[in-house]
Amino acid sequence: MSRALLQLQQVSKHYPGHPPVVALDQVSLDLLGGELVVLLGPSGSGKSTLLNVVGGLDRPTDGSLSFEGLRLDQADDAQLTRYRRDHVGFVFQFYNLVPSLTALENVALVTQLAGAGAMEPEEALAEVQLSHRLHHFPAQLSGGEQQRVAVARAIAKRPRVLLCDEPTGALDSHTGSRVLEVIEAANRRIGAATIVITHNSAIAAMGDRVIRLADGRVVDDQRQAARVPADQLQW
Amino acid sequence: MVGRVWQRLGRDRPLLLKGARELWQLRGQVLAIMLVVAAGVATFLMAISTYASLQATRASFYRSQHFADAFVQLTRAPERLARSLAEIPGVRVLETRVAGGGQLRIEGFDDPVRAWLVSLPERGEGQLNRLYLRQGRLPVEGGRGEVVVGEAFASAHGLRPGDPLPAIIRGRAQTLRVVGVGISPEFVYQIQAGAAFPDFKRFGVLWMRREALAEALELDQAFNHLAIALVDPERDGPAVLAELDRQLQPYGGRGAYLRADQLSHKFLSVEFDQLRALATVFPGVFLGVAAFLLHVVFGRMIAAQRETIGVLRAFGLPRRRLLLHYCGMVAAVVVLGVLPGLLGGLWLGRQLGAVYLDFYRFPALSWQLPPLAVLAAFVIALLAGMAGAWSSLRQAARIEPAEAMRPPIPPSFRRGLLERTLLRPFRSLLLRMSLRQLLQRPWKTVLTLLGIALASAVLTLGLFQTDALFYMVDRQFAYGLRNDLQVVFADARHPQVLDELRRLPGVERVIGIRYEPVRLVHHGVRRRVSLEAWSQDPAGPAALDLKRILLGDDQLGAMPSGGLVLTDALAASLAVRPGETIWVERLEGDRRQFAAPIVGLARESIGSSAYASAEWLDRALGDGPRVSAAALRLRPDADPQALYDRLEARPAVIAIGQRSAAIENFYDTMAESMDIFTRVSFGLAALIAFGVLYNTVRIAYAERERELATLRVLGLRAGEVSQLLIADLALLTVLSLPLGALTGWSMAKLLSLGLQSELYRVPAYLSPATFASATSVVLLAAVVAAIVIHRRVLRLAPLAALGSRE
Which of A70, B201, B270, B623 is the most exposed place for a label (fewest CB within 10 A)? Predict the structure, then answer.
């Protein structure tokens, strides 16, 4: 394991309302380069808010958040965009592929933005075993295939941080397991600090570390001695 | 009953609330549709109410002022003849009159001014064609020199009772005095015979007591005009006309005619009909656009509510009530548009009525709004709305309860032939996305293009009338007719008179014109025209120089020899073609009839004319060479004022027409009155263009919000993301421009067909400036839509992309 890539200190996120919603409540944690973190928690526990804050999609209300010294809590819109463009890969529950672009083009969209250092789109799709589906549009792919394209898109720029929001939420267990395998492989291959959000505690075993959230607070943060390979997970 | 409705409403309350809240959410788009519906309804009601009001106003004015049913002009008949004419069966009232032309001098206005003087009975106001006094009084009995002046002319020159009015009648100068200002059913449309457009500054109608005018016109104890009221114009008309013609033949009768052929009435009828044509074209375009917008907005709404509809169906909502619910929403939007449209239409109708009132000089506008028109506006707008939303409504009704449970399916794209060929050269992924959106949703693209094209068509149509009018005048007067002055003689005379004119200082060339009132007959169809025959200029090349006949768009011809050239509209109404022969009945003198070959057709937009060479006509009529008018070309150094003075002093000259001033006046007044129209159509077109473009891009935004947010999450800047939508918009806009030009032209063509009459053939001509204006409005609307959508993308939260929200 390497040193802390992302540091959260007393990070809180409140949404205005009557009464205001406290989505994150003084969360402090370090995220190390290359580690695979499984973030568990029931609905409303703050997992997605944490992911948004870490991914530079949202700013915390209080506390500090830094990525290799860059204060994300103080960054402006352009800096956050740059951060996401250069360092963060996202995998969404509903894949969020651009329907009018083929698998190859969906990946190319990101690699063109990332510039030097990114993989060739074909290479990224080979990583997720989709070399035979390069020119298919999302509507022509199964849910699992779409999610693997989404993973290829996320890893193609060799991000430092890979964020996966319920990546198996819309998939059956077999397909879900294949998606987790590619996420796991990508984590090893590119060494990105990876956070997988899930409701499903069976997935926890694949992580280096399991963080449990409840009511916006970290209630448990455990390192695991060994990761169970994704293909051996049972759910 | 009320209780049951209340109960029903109570039961439907949740659905009603749902509908109302959803419409409120879409308020921007709903407002755009409302405005377009309102514009359609307003233009419809404006045109219909103005049409109905003008018809009613004219009818009541004719009634109150006892407008005659039939008219005759003749050279001179003794007054005693009136008694036998009045006994013709079918004649109810017959009034003899004297009328003739003269020249007026208006202080501070140098151009020649022509007057048409009409007699009033020596006592009282007469039985027919009564004057309606706006100011002052009628001339006193035996009041020499006292005149009532037509209101349009009086206001053009600021004439008021008490003002002196120097005139030259039959070469004699005399000073008339204005005692009143009035209007007459006979001259509602004050236009000179032979002119295409009114010129209130250079032509005025004056009324004098009979004896005074007869003396000035040298028509003592005689008359040269008849106004007749018939017992039953429909039944008795033809027989009375024939008998009048028979009895008046020895007195130079020029053929009796019914009200339908009376100049002012005929022009009014044509203009009213044109108004009716406008009542269909403009509202049609607006409601078409409204239907398109409803289609787009409801299509999107129903697609987005697929799950909700599934759930409602799963809860047991019958298909019929679901359909009713969405129909109700469409109806609500339409009705919300119809109501301001009604108010706007009423207001605009009154405004337009006032404009027409100013132009036509009726005593007061009897404002009408046919209740059926209001109902029709509602029904037509609702039908258009339902038609537009129909496919979306059907889609809603087809949604099965199970749909609610299925995850959304990504919109499908394929790699078709277009994809492999057209898109190949485009490397930019963003551009590819745009092109695919357009190419793989062809119906949507075509509808959007049509929507924008309609906007540019509205503007094109707004400007079309000015274009067509200016084109007509330019062709007819600037291109076809090349003289500087036209001098009209009191009666036909020997061409020697032309030599006198040639000797006047400043005159370069003089061509004689013979006007001969004739009736053309072909296979039982009759048309009265004034045959126009131009003579050769002995001093120079053919008369082609001063008068050219428009044979085609750019083809000019000389006067025909050996027969007649008819304007194509006249030929069409007589169903005669070149090479065929037609009967010509002379309406004056010996009333001879002769056959004349048709040797060509003239493509003229104004009037119905028949042309011949003077030599041919003189031969055909057999009464020796005659001229009724002369066309003059002046030298560049000529002093027009000195020339007018010399011409006016001649008894034989009754009118002097100045071509350039008339054209300039036309351009000035038309440009002024068209200005308002142009502004309104600019505004409406801009509204539609913006409505269509904004709705299109707004819906694209709504449909692709997740996709756009994803791109933001992936690291695209807001500017890059908005570029994507703006690229779509730009592509659509650019593609719509040629289509808009084509649609505008087609609609202009359609409108020009609707505006055809014997008096005008409105050409489907559009100037490059019109196309440029239409294009710039669409581009401007696109820029505004782009700015609005860019601001929205700036506010777009990347979080919208994420599936799970806390």
Answer: B623
Residue B741's CB: how many other CB atoms inside 10 A?
19
Structure tokens at B170: 């039959």
Residues in chain A within 8 Å Cβ distance of B410: 97, 99, 138-139, 146
Considering only CA atoms, which of A100, A156, A124 is closest in space to residue B431? A100
Residues B256, B70 contacting (CB under 8 angstroms): yes
* Confidence at residue B806, expressed as pLDDT on a 0 to 100 scale: 34
Backbone phi, then psi, for B487, in 5-degree steps?
Answer: -110, 125
pLDDT along chain B (806 residues), means of 10: 67 76 80 82 85 90 94 91 90 93 84 88 89 92 88 90 89 89 89 72 91 89 93 90 89 87 86 77 76 78 77 77 85 89 87 79 83 86 84 79 62 70 72 80 81 80 80 73 78 85 86 88 87 71 61 64 85 90 86 89 80 87 87 84 78 72 70 66 76 80 84 87 87 88 86 74 84 87 89 82 49
* Residue B405 pLDDT: 58
pLDDT range class, residue A170, cuts 50, 70, 90? confident
In this prediction, residue B356 carries a pLDDT of 79
B804 part of contact set with chain A, CB < 8 Å: yes
Which chain B residues touch A114 with a CB distance below 8 Å?
Answer: 715
Contacts of A88 in chain B (CB under 8 A): 715
Residue B778, amino acid: V
DSSP for B573-608 reads HHT--TT-EEEEEESSTT--EEEEEEEEEE--SBS-
Say whether B164 sits in a helix, a strand or coil. Answer: strand
pLDDT of residue B539: 54
User: Is the CB of A92 less than 8 angstroms away from the CB of B801?
Assistant: yes
Is the CB of residue B183 less than 8 Å away from at least one CB of chain A? no
Residues in a beta bridge with B578 = none
Burial class (CB in 10 A: 0-12, 13-18, 19+), B754: middle
Q: Residue A102: its chain B contacts at CB < 8 A?
A: 415
Q: Do A96 and B412 touch (CB under 8 A)?
A: no
Contact list in A for residue B706 (CB cut-off 8 A) is: 96
**Which residues, including other chains, have CB under 8 Å from residue A145's CB and lie 6 or more apart?**
A103, A130, A133, A136
> Are B433 and A49 in contact (CB < 8 Å)?
no
**What is the distance in angstroms between the Cα of B799 and the nearest Cα belonging to chain A?**
7
**pLDDT at res. A1:** 46
pLDDT of residue A150: 93
Query: Contact B412/A108, CB-based, under 8 Å?
Result: no
A47-106: pLDDT as tens digits: 989 999 999 988 999 999 999 989 999 999 889 989 998 999 999 888 888 888 899 999
Of the candidates B510, B506, B521, B477, which has an alpha carbon nearest to the alpha carbon of residue B661? B477
Question: Rounded to an integer, what distance in angstroms lies between the CA atom of residue B743 and that of residue B284?
Answer: 13
What would the pLDDT profile of A116-145 be if each residue is shown by its tens digit? 888 999 999 998 889 999 999 998 999 889
Report CB contact under 8 Å: B715, A110: yes
For residue B232, give the 3-state DSSP assignment.
coil
How far does Cα B589 stand from its chain's mean position? 39
CB B152 within 8 A of CB B198: yes
**Chain B residue nearest residue A94, CA to CA:** B803
Return the residue of A nearest to B706 by Cα.
A96
Evaluate if residue A2 carries a pLDDT over 60: no
Helices (H) and strands (E) in chain A, counts: 6, 10
Interface confidence, given as ipTM, is: 0.87
Closest residue on chain B to A24 (Cα): B806
Binary contact (A113, B715; C-beta < 8 A): yes
List strand residue ranges (DSSP E) for B430-524, in order. Answer: 485-493, 507-522
